[in-house]
Amino acid sequence: MNSFSYIRAADPAEAVSQLAQQSNGKFVAGGTNLFDLMKENIEQPPYVIDINRLDLARIEPLPQGGLRLGALVTNADTAWNELVEQNYPLLSKAILAGASPQLRNMATNGGNPLQRTRCYYFYDHATPCNKREPGTGCSALNGFNRIHAILGTSEHCIATHPSDMCVALRALGARVNIKGVNGERTIDFADLHRLPGDAPHLDNNLEHGDLITSIDLPEKQFKTNVAYLKLRDRQSYAFALVSVAVALEMNGDQILEARVALGGVAHKPWRDEAAEEQLKGQPATADHFKAFADTVLSGAIGYGHNTFKIELAKRAIVRALTTAAAQSVEEPSSQPLV
Amino acid sequence: MNTKYTGQSASRVDGPLKVTGKAKYAAEFAADGLLYGYVLNSNIASGEILSIDTTAAMGIKGVISVFTHENVEDLTWFNIKYKDMDSTAGTPFRPLGSNKILFSMQPIGLVVAESFEIARLAASLIEISYKEYPHVTNLQGELDHSKEAPMGKIGYVQPKSRGNAEKAYRKAEYKIQGEYVHAAEHHNPLEMLATTAIWEEEGKITLYDKTQGVSNVQMYISNVFGLKMENVRVVSPFVGGAFGIGLRPKYNVFLATLASLELRRNIRLVLTRQQMFSFGHRPGSVQRIAMSADLNGKLTSIQHAAFGETSTYEDYTEIVANWSGTMYNCENVKLKYELVKLNVATPTDMRAPGAVTSAHAFESAIDEMAYAIKMDPLEFRRINYAEEDQVEKKPYSSKELRACYDQGAAKFGWENRPLEPQSMREGNQLVGWGMANGAWDALMMPAKAQAILSADGKLILSSGTSDIGTGTYTIMTQIGAETLGLGLDDVTFQLGDTHMPMAPLEGGSWTAASVGSAVKAVCEEVKTKLFEMASKLKDTPFKRAKIKDFAVDHGHISLLSNPSARLSIVDVMRLSGVNSILETAMSGPDPKAKKTHSFNSHAAVFAEVKVDADLGTVVVTRVVCAVAAGKILNPKTAGSQILGSVVWGISKALEEESVLDNEFGRFMNHSLAEYHVAVNKDINEIDVIFVEEHDDLVNPLGIKGVGEIGIVAVAPAIANAVFHATGVRVRNLPITMDKVLQIAEEDKNQEEVPLLK
Amino acid sequence: MKNSVQNLQLPESIPVSLNVNGQQHNLSLQPWVSLLDTLREHLHLTGTKKGCDHGQCGACTVLVDGKRINSCLTMAVMKEGSEIVTIEGIAHGDTLHPLQQAFIEHDAFQCGYCTPGQICSAIGLMNEGKANTLDDVKELMSGNICRCGAYTHINEAIMQVKEQEAEAAILLKNTEASGLHEVSERDETSVPGAPAREAELVTEAEGGASHE
After folding, report:
1. Which regions of chain B are under pLDDT 70?
2. Which fold is adopted by the domain C11-90+201-207?
3. How far is C134 from chain A (nearest CA, A)?
4. Regarding beta strands C83-85 and A26-28, do their DSSP bridges make them parallel or antiparallel, or are they unpaired?
5. Strand, coil or helix: what is B314?
6. Contact yes or no for B664 and A139 at CB 8 A
7. Which residues of A touch B676 (CB under 8 A)?
8. Hey, which CATH number is domain B31-134+191-272, 3.90.79.10, 3.40.50.720, 3.40.50.80, 3.90.1170.50?
9. What is the ipTM of this complex?
10. Residue C50 · residue C36 · CB < 8 Å
11. pLDDT tens for residues A290-320?
12. A137 by DSSP, 3-state: which?
């Protein structure tokens, strides 16, 4: 860990201007990923600006409907917030599928989306990594890439975004409120993260000095037909190989609207809105789900160790849609194992 | 109403210290003017260091020194001085011994600074340039370059073949063959390796070290640094898990000692979790098994070829294929065990080394063989049950494996098991039941113990062994209290200090038998002393009584012939004018017994899995582990040992894998986030059964040790259950969802052996 | 892994006031010192363990303002003014916390290294009040790795204490309903939520000035 100066910000404006003055500074809220990375010298901010004293730790209904999640509300407090549990159960489920209770007590809503990839090579200075050191190459491309991306990849990077919460936020169509050097703005959650392209060192579209102040959940709630399915190499406390967040609006057996976001498969929470159109007005059957899954994964590329994710993601989508459509009642699968 | 403790459950005597945070581990001893170390490790797997520039690191305020191969001098010339009690054949690794890089993450420097944070920063500023050599780390790709495993490691014997297995196999109607693979695994005890080195005076040092053998560390350090044995004190009262990683002294204790002696300062060195992947591991293995049986279920041939990895500089050996020759009755057995040299750190013993590797392959193959003749796998094992050691042609001192079968199967409900795979289902979940059995050596080593009985009737026992969570503190207290008829509260057992009588390494499941026998022996001597004293007391019924006439219980001495004639131990000592009794005793294995008998513990494991039919996820929902391990000193702590072993087996079967990137020759998932070990959610119902097993031959206590036997057969039981659930044979551990679904790129199950004719 | 030269200046120490187990500690710390290292190396409260230093094992779990967190991933300077409870502050004098007692009774540990974190985590879990079933406990205790594999015993210990508390709560309710209040002082240590209390304070002397 590098030596750094610690600054405690008193309000958002001060925080933004403090960071703007320090070209390589970082905000810290929960610290769960920043300090993790600093201990490995992956992040080396000379200035760390502690924003925990900012007044951004509330969850409040928005006047026009929807819910505002303060950036400094912890993941745990968000997941277990009564309004979130009742109206946005998908978000609760996704958050609770991630990390550990201790980490969720530290990690914040503003920080969670900004956590960095868990790519082994990104974490290890002994190996080249374009995300860590642009231009050095991607070791995962031909390396051990079991946990890596199959969608939206580039020859420069096949890292994934590791968050569970963000997958639900992407499905729900959240919006992100940002305070920056040039004032405040709001962006779609879809536009927060980016694909690696030829600049994989950039995880998202934030400018230096930008502070996420809150995340807004839309008026549309999806209270019942939701599912978050997370597949991982152990039952808890592991990152997703594939995760699926599903929110359905149903009329009887008919799908009025489907939202399906994938985690663990891309550099950002993955969603294919065009394919979702395919499900509109259709009955909730395995055939439709399979066809949808095929469409979503049609552009997927496997890199060897992670090629199984293409098939696995399809199966996970079908299962999650089935579960959501059945309002969490699991039905026997018709599909044979082999 | 007697003071009988062995065989009874007792809570850990060190429990209160552990639940209050007062138990002190190696990195937790305070010292004046403590300095902190931070190790720098190599980025490459093979080559040499051309230059190492410590200027920037040394320029930081608070950095005291940087040790590298360039400035480490005056150590012994002789490689043999680096040998330790668990060494293998070959040349031991010498930390900072030269500029040669033998494996990735090899320690190449030590920064010593006034704080941990400064040392960590400084380590990151050291500039190194390497000359890289080609490296080879892919075991499966190097099988053509395997070589016979040499002797050298204590306990290693080469596997013996018998009969003509190839011929029998050719002629057989029912046969199977398969290749079984498992990756390297790292121990990852929760406490990382650490040393607090206290500089006492010139040439004299005290080391608080995380180790399974204080004497081993003492010997190693005194040899390497040329110190007198008595000037190296090693202390290790608590060890936060080890599982074998604490058997051989590691570079942390070497480096801490080096810096402490050089700087004449106290130093603390704690390795990072990443660095816990920078030394010995359970070697990855490839095993090829072919087997045949007749229609009655009799095994007609066994062929087992095992390949293990080792380093370029040492030959680490395990007993792998040997087990396949002893487990079952079979006339034609061909066994082979070979090593492949790779640019990795020398593997090291990890819980049930060899046996667990062997059982994964062999017990899976047995299941496949049973299925080839459509026979219940338990029935198949019963038919081929080995009444005596098939290799040594000697009877077992005891072998209650049949009782394990009976009681385990009954508890599990095995009799209701349909033979056909894919025949049980709950919704999306395919349910499968599998079983396997395993064995482990019941060993005993020479050990010493000391007893001091004070005038107040309190007994202090000591032996330089360790308690890595195994319950040593507790069972030794029980043995001592029982032998001298004292209350548990009257007895204190101390361990983990080279000032105490010497004990063997804490491993191999032999500590209870070895140290326990020494403790019993020394207590018997104290007892004899007390009886002698009592028989000399005037005006008591004990006068002129013979030793054999006495008994002890509840802190009193009495006469067998007249139990009401009692005198407290305190009174005996007071009346005799004795302030304390000090005795030392040694015990060891009976060499005659070994000539006539073989000594093994056994276990049968039954597992239930639920496998998602679409997603391939595996959950182990139920395990019954029935163990025959002689007398169980403390069912509570012994039960926990088995329980933990089962958790290890589940973890091994489904999760553990140290992933080597062959391009870099480096383990890449070097963290607890990506090296998965079982978490709470992974573990469901586990039943432990200890079957009655009486054994007068194995050792004076009749015990066989329980640290390892529990894990041996767990992974194959689970693999067999997965087959029963799905019809898919996953021969490559860990069993992950992609392998179950047979969509894994590296899936080796493509060449399906016809299993169900 | 090169740090740039501009970082060679060491961080300046900052006065930090930490309330640990009810005792105020006025320290001067560099901001790069984690709460975990502060507890272990500066306050000699070594009951809190370092198992990975990356939030991947839970051994370093402590309670901050009643909530369980990984002390390895927070810097001490960030916890100015917070009430921190470590394993050393759980027992009430010589009387063990019910969870500590239950851990011993159920043999819920072997090597003991993860135990302080497990116990602090379990107290945090009970404070949260979200674990109603054994399955909930398993999921919500999965942030604490026990490499010795004592999970089933850990869960038995937690379930037992949860049941004891539930019974105590019913008893208390019935007692209040009947107008009797003399049991209001019942087993204070089992009341979840109280992050700091006048516990047996572990001071510098506990860590010892020498290594003996």
Report:
1. 1-3, 746-757
2. Ubiquitin-like (UB roll) (3.10.20)
3. 15
4. unpaired
5. strand
6. yes
7. 233-234, 238
8. 3.90.1170.50
9. 0.97
10. yes
11. 999 999 999 999 999 999 999 999 999 999 9
12. coil
